[in-house]
Amino acid sequence: MNTMNPADWRDSAIEWDDDGARWHTYVAKALLVLNVVFAIRYLSWLVAPGRAAQPALYLLLVGAEMFNMVQGGGFWWTVSRRRPKSPPPDIERSSAIDVFIPTYNEPLDIVEPTVAAATRLRGADVRVALLDDGCRPEMEALAARYGIRYITRPEHVGAKAGNINWALERTDAPFVAILDCDHVPDPAFAEVCLSHFDDKVAFVQTPQYYANWRAGGLADATWSQQSLFFGAIAPGRDALGAMFCCGTNVVFRRAALEHAGGFSHDSLTEDFELSIRLHELGWETRYITDILASGLGPEDMGSYASQQLRWARGCLASLPAILRAKLPIPMRLQYLLSAAFWLSGWTLLIYMLFPVVRILTGMQPVTVQSADDFLKYWAPYFASAMATVAFAARGRYSYWAFTLMSASFWIHIVASVLTLLRRKGSFAVTPKKAVGGVQLKPIAAPLGAAAFLLLVVLYGLWHDPSPATVTNAGFALVHVVVLVSGARLAFTQPVAAVDEAPQPTGEVVCVPG
Amino acid sequence: MIAGTTSAGTRAAIPQDGPRDPVPILFGLGAIAVVLRLIALRPMWLDEATTARGAEGAFGSLVSAARVAGAHPPLDAVAVWVATKFTGDGILGLRVVSLLAGVALVPVVYATATEMYDRRAGIAAAVVAAVAPSAVWFSGVAGPTTLAALLAACALWAVIRAVRTNDVVHWLSFALADVALIWTHQLGVLHVAVLHVAVAVVLARCLRSGEAVAPLMWGWIASLAATFIAVASLGLYRGFGPPNALPPLEYATSGAPAGGQSVFDLSRAATASLIGFHPPDVTSRLLALWPLAILLAFLIFGRRWSLRGGLIVALALTPFVAMLIAQLAGAPREPAFAVEWAATALPAIGIGVGRGLSLIGPWPRVRFAAAACAALLLLALADQTNRVNTLPRFNIEPVMAALEQNVAPGDAVIYSPPAISDVVRYNAAGAHVADVRRAGRVPLGTARRVQVISAFALGDKRDADAAMALISELSKTRHLVERHGNNDVRMWVFA
Questions:
Q1: What is the model's pTM?
Q2: ipTM score here?
């Protein structure tokens, strides 16, 4: 794919087994029923008269559990709507397509493979343009070397959205593909995406694959998080007609973009808000599960935190727009679920609070006769919910992905506070290469919380080693392990790609006897 | 085949190394296993009296006793019967099968974990098999638990080898281990069923990827046929047996590996299947740490499952799920949620722990983790050996010793409740023996001496009242010459 930089994860084979078998949809529907039954059973136990012990703590618990149940319910509903994979509609499109590769400060060895691959796209009249907001001579030279357009602008307003809008005014193909400068497209990218455009479709989104997941550590965990979305949630959203644009590996119909007024300059998640506007205007959207471009995920904690904070602030800021938008109820619910997900850090903070308060003051949210009584109602709910995530993500959502998300609880809190205060955020490009050394700032909050919880545990066990204290110490230790596991990813250095990137092997290999 | 590496193998190089020469380590672990099992030997338990009585009698009566529905199939009893012909029916002779099976479990678990994963996982799993308090406990009990665990491990090893090599010897080993397991433990058939499902899944995957499956199919069909024959013959054999069996009494004792009726008791059984049995103060605190199971769930669900991983989890869970279903269906095997029922899960649990430890990193780190795990398990074993004892609460031994010493032909021995029938009959050879409800069938008037035994801790009020009424009756016609026992079990001797 790329001759300049052979040691590149993006050259390695894609590992993505998303066959969308029919039996998966049946199992997902069965799990939906099971989850709802167990959730209602647990909820009815939780809100039973006389259950509250300390009223304020009880309200916090019920609130956190309700929030998670709604989020969980949304997830179960979404993944249960996934349709079995069918052959592409094969709509004949021998059309022209502008391929935009926006860049700002990324190094040449990141951008060049993308440019090279873009020039090899087939199935359409492909017009590649490098949108350089950094006005760098080496990018101009790169564009010249590959014979593509080099577009730059005098004023760099509106970040990536502004960059694309500027290019839209200077190009004219009926379709526009957007590839982040680290996303190396497959030659079939344009051809496959264009085959899904019927007259009502505004855009076709494909997965945002992080090829550097093999580097391990943070990159692996972030791809794991991505794969839950692109492997399980996105196909369900697509079935509900509510897929939103993810900013890269997407092909737009120019007419739809113009109808919506282009990308918003005011949003940190311009793609998310654009999707809402397009749906409101009656356009349809498509998602295809085939990976048609290989990109790079964040490899260091600072980059990850910056990306998550941007997404969180952007999505939370979109909440009023979602509420105002004239959308069908399922679609509106889907957008609300996506945006509200970024509040889930609050629930983790609440859960961390309970063992601390119980150990230090003896107060607890609920009256429970015995652990057995609680487990009877909670354990089936928890187990089925966990099994659903594992099933829907086909095992791709890893322990490390979960701990990374948990260790990022503070990002959700900071994002929601900044959104409430209406502080204006700035668009920060997610770095494509790891920064050397350990970045302590993004993990200060989880490590601080873990240390505090550990101190409380030690204090509690020292003063009162009763089974009740031990149970609360157990809860606190779960948080400690999860937070430290997530923060630990800041200490792992990504493994560099080698010239011959390892080929994936299956879990089960059939060898002739 | 159930081969290849998981996707993890392509990530930041998880090393597949291990000790260069595992043989000395295995010998060392085997020696430790023998020493621990001998150190931890306890006095004979009530249930073992049944085995002892069977071993002492004719082969036919032994086989008949094992035909009772609810009892385990007879292979272990047969093995004990054979063993006692060489070792005598002393306590060590009765337990020699369990002891040998417990020690043999160490290399078999090593071989299986190595076959499934690598040598690091193999050594770590062997450490668990050698020192896990539950493995040590059941190695010291005359019963089918350890033999079933060994056969379960053998069947797993054989099926992995058979699928990988398609060698006749391995398919035959698999079939033999299957049959033996089915004839050893009541829930052995479930373990075997899971293994057959795993083979079916492998075949389906091979079919899907266009591989030739015919050679494997023949081996599988043959082993499947052997399984069906074993199940059918066991069913026929059981069909002639009486409908009910008494629950094992071992579990009726406080501090012993008790069963229970709740989800919490199921958790207790699952915990005990690794860390053994502990006094209530320790058990309650250990179980209070149940939130840590959330972490375990994150770790189990939060990874891409290979067929091997799924198989290990399925084998470890199957007996517990069976117990839970039986409980929910209102037909629990008594004692409900006892570790004994989970015998076939023990190797899978050991291999699972070994695999978990092997994921920590390169061999030096795994070695350290395995040593730390062994230290924890040894601590638990010390607690189990020193603090779990039946004597303070239910000690039938002094009464049985007195009975054995005093009883003579022509004596009448009346006992209550019926549950202690076996142990009383074992110790009252030559006497007329009956339970208190059938006391009328014994010639009490002409008996040389009448000995009345009542285990109040086990019987219901009716049994206790009947025993006291009989004692009252006998007091009118005979002299009370001796009295033995404690608050739980008492014996009155009338001359």
A1: 0.78
A2: 0.84
